[in-house]
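Q: How would the structure tokens look for this protein?
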Amino acid sequence: MEDHAVIVHFQYGSRDLQAMFDLEDKLERAIAEAGAGEYDGNEIAVDGSDGSLYMYGPDADALTDVVRPILAAAPFMNGATITKRYGPPEDGVREAEEVIGAR
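A: Here is the predicted structure in token form.
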């Protein structure tokens, strides 16, 4: 089951999405190699101001452990919020948040 989710909300600040696409490639590869789940995609504001990344797997903590160092290495992820959801998307499911770096 891939009921857990890791959702990353970040400030981007550019319409040039190449750096974000490069990050997505790294995340997708690391998650697959670790067998921690799957990278599902992104949502980016039309003006490039902010965005979200979506990842799913059986264990939100294990998935976060895989992606955290990759996210922390991307300058535009400084100050991003990681939301870990420990179950399916429904009311009452436990969530936890952490911030990458400090702005």
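The two ends are 35 Å apart (CA to CA).

Residues 18-34 form the longest helix (17 residues).

Upvote if useful.
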